[in-house]
Amino acid sequence: MKSPGSSNGSHGTRGSSTGQTVKFARRTSSGRYVSLSREDLDMSGEFSGDYMNYTVHIPPTPDNQPMDTSVAAKAEEQYVSNSLFTGGFNSVTRAHLMDKVIESQVSHPQMAGSKGSSCAMPACDGKVMTDERGNDVIPCECRFKICRDCYMDAQKETGLCPGCKEPYRVGDFDDDVPNYSSGALSLPGPDDPKRDRNMSMMKRNQNGDFDHNKWLFETQGTYGYGNAYWPQDDVYGDDGDGGMQKGMMESSDKPWRPLSRVIDIPNSIISPYRLLIVIRLIVLGFFLAWRVRHPNNDAVWLWLMSVVCEIWFAFSWILDQLPKVHPINRTTDLEVLRDKFEMPSPSNPTGRSDLPGVDLFVSTADPEKEPPLVTANTILSILAVEYSVEKLACYVSDDGGALLTFEAMAEAASFADLWVPFCRKHDIEPRNPETYFSLKGDPTKNKSRLDFVKDRRRVKREYDEFKVRINGLPDSIRRRSEAFNAREEMKMLKHMRESGADTLEPIKVPKATWMADGTHWPGTWAVSSREHAKGDHAGILQVMLKPPSSDPLMGSSEDKLLDFTDVDIRLPMFVYVSREKRPGYDHNKKAGAMNALVRASAVLSNGPFILNLDCDHYIYNCKAIREGMCFMMDRGGEDICYIQFPQRFEGIDPSDRYANHNTVFFDGNMRALDGLQGPVYVGTGCMFRRFALYGFDPPKVDNISEKSSETQALKTTDFDPDLDVNLLPKRFGNSTLLAESIPIAEFQGRPIADHPAIKYGRPPGILRVPREPLDATTVAEAVSVISCWYEDKTEWGDRVGWIYGSVTEDVVTGYRMHNRGWRSVYCVTKRDAFRGSAPINLTDRLHQVLRWATGSVEIFFSRNNALLASKKLKVLQRLAYLNVGVYPFTSMFLIVYCFLPALSLFSGHFIVQTLDVSFLGLLLTISICLVALAILEVKWSGVGLEEWWRNEQFWLISGTSAHLAAVVQGLLKVVAGIEISFTLTSKSGGDDDDDIYADLYLVKWTSLMIPPIVIGMVNIIAMVVAFSRTIYETVPQWSKFIGGAFFSFWVLAHLYPFAKGLMGRRGKTPTIVFVWSGLIAITLSLLWVAVNPNNSEATSVPSGFTFP
Length: 1108
Known about the structure:
Blueprint: E1 21-27, E2 33-35, H1 38-44, E3 51-56, H2 70-81, E4 83-88, E5 91-97, H3 148-157, H4 212-218, H5 243-253, E6 260-264, H6 267-293, H7 300-321, E7 328-332, H8 334-341, E8 358-364, H9 372-383, E9 392-398, H10 403-426, H11 433-438, H12 452-499, E10 532-533, E11 536-537, E12 539-545, E13 573-578, H13 589-604, E14 609-614, E15 618-619, H14 624-632, E16 640-644, E17 649-650, H15 663-674, E18 686-689, H16 690-693, H17 706-711, H18 716-719, H19 728-732, H20 736-748, H21 776-785, H22 809-819, E19 823-826, E20 834-837, H23 842-860, H24 875-886, H25 890-907, H26 917-941, H27 945-959, H28 962-975, H29 1010-1032, H30 1038-1054, H31 1056-1063, H32 1071-1091
Parallel strand pairs: 8-9, 8-14, 9-13, 16-19, 17-20
Antiparallel strand pairs: 1-2, 1-3, 4-5, 4-12, 6-7, 10-11, 12-13, 14-18, 15-20, 16-18
Helix pairs in contact: 6-7, 6-26, 7-25, 9-10, 10-12, 13-21, 15-26, 23-24, 23-28, 25-29, 25-30, 29-30, 29-32
């Protein structure tokens, strides 16, 4: 694509670094591409829509200043948003201009596939360019309607308007002329007369090439989409000296207020809590000392096993308990955030937002396992979030490269045209349509607009039709592909007949998957083929919704199905990304997909903050991003690497049988860590600082001068003295745009310097500047950074981005940041920020825990072990991370300890020789401290006592099953390099589709169930045997029986949910229960024979017994 005003020779390939290179390809009717040379194109004498091309050029610098107009920029952006970009390793990046993205009609002007009026040029069936409202963009004041291609041809050939035959003149109707009187800052370009235009030679690097970093940061220049801009000196006033100071004074006129506050736990709760920890720690020491000094000489083996287990349990308790000594709560003030960043002022009369941009990532991999409707609802909740629309960009990563996901996302973008303004108009919450329309209760509560009921009924009907379209996509794609493949077979057969070939031979036509516009889908096909399989396809990038205008775009009563008068109808930028995959490359699963999104978003939007969500976790609180921003933009927020939100789940059974809510961890452990260096990263619902993801240390405020830190971005060496400009490609790859975006993202992510105590900030108003439009070059660069080869010989996955090498890449990624000195914050909102789904089936839950525990074992045996951490990791935070790697090993001691009561009952010996008063007193004190600590922890964390008990039960269930399997897996992998997978083998039960908890009753057999079953059966049998033997003894030893039976009952009480899960639905007893019953009956019969032999002595039974 050629910019208007550039030289005619710009289509050729120049040898200089500033030359422009164009790649051409022709799309045939069969959907394939045929490459064309420059000569072929010149001979054809055509430049039609069949020729797909893009331009690779150096961004505007003092050496390269192409002329441009607002119309050309609008044409470029519309071309980009209507094109599907593909490319990858050793392949040309192509822009495929799509006639339509989905079968249904597209109405929103931001969406790909939206069209204007017909072009007035003879023999042209193109569509006129449209603006943000969908109105035609007419480049000449004679109002001659012309499409983009014809406009580009007219500019290239004569420069005259085909209508009036005069040079293009833009009239007053062109509303795209930049107008910064509304509060936007003017942009000091490199051709500013106040700048030195002859600095090109001064800004050369050692190789003689133009040094973009030097030019950008030493001259306060501007370029790039989503980049930061430095205002002119007199932007706030006529005098050049006091302009910026005047803007600073505006914000300092008001009394400074913090955006967030720390709320300490009341002393009446936390002081006794800490005291009990110390008391239990001391008593535990005395107890273990007594146990070691008083062995059971009658059963040394039993004593030794119990002492070893108890010592490990004490160590494990210390690792878990000590990091909980300083729990805190936090609160935010959204009103202050609005006052600081969005309130109208003399320099910002319209209240344009000064908040930084946020890029939201949603990852999905398989539309069969992760239904597209679920992902679509998550996307809709993101697009409707309460945040400055122009500052948001949503990216969905489709790691499966499926057309089904692509078209489902396009349908979601189309439905957002109605759903998002409806949410804004009526303040809808939650903004996931599936959840909203499923809410029980009165939907009119707190709604005052008279048209709400009518609007809701209409949107509900449209949503039902939307769901039907999504559900029908698989069949629609299949029928479409079959029809086009049959057409291709007919063409091939006709060709064979005309060429005289043998028509009896089988026709070799690939079974392709076809898009809605009648071309091949470049991703995965339903029938896998070379370069079209799950692990072998090109990189794909489609801008589903182009960036919105910088100012609100109010709707009307005529544009849409509903009356959206005085409602902002803009939608955030939305991009579909499927990274390139090729055989022989390690794509690193979810972590690799997230890193691809980090790079693509850096090139396209470069939001200083990144929020990642799983495809089944949607935004439940539309102000969640603003809550997190209160911490990032507050004083001292420059060293916060991420904001972790708690995970909340829906669809869990009321009793929460398997502790799926995990409230003890999210409301207890995470609050406690928030009082140290911050919570761990748990994989979803986390808002990152992009700069921290790039592997840099937090800014050293004390070492940076106040002037440089507040007024300009810093150089690379200011962040990392060991990183030279020449080493940027080794760390981040060879993308220049990506490298240049890093310091800009850092600068935009700083808090505003509105208080003397803020020594590391940015000037107020610096982010009110509108974004530059997207161009083909930028999108082509984004395609190149998601190619499979880009990470080769770089530090992506090792130091930069999500860390590779572990199943739990989330914990490792957060650990690396804390290890570099960053801190994190736990944000608990009054209304849940996000909600998602969790497995309620026993087997699925065990496999989920198995994956987590396996990742922890990998962490323990890797260089991410907290024992090897740097001095920047605080002591208690180090203990918390050490516990993450150690806790699965507790399973080895736990399973032994669960067998000890049974062994004690079988052998007739107890873990101690006699029930000494000292032993009982210490044991009682430890138990009382444990109960008191649990009560106080429930108090300060807000966890229910029943939830705490469910967590304790599932801790034993998972500890004797999944955690043990994870240790076995980890040891075999480390020692012998053998990998074992525990898979499902059979299903039974739960066939009631009407029961939302039907999955709870499914019994899926897995080998993970064997250890808990054995533990439960052995303890039951041991109690029966011991009771029978004690009754028939001449001198009954009830003390030993009661001691062993008490601990056996303790084990069985914890295994109750596990046993209940094995029983399935009431009235549907699995066959295995009958097998167990038979085994127990046989065992009891044999025991009866053993304890009641046929001799005269056995009949003499004492008439009574006494307790010890």
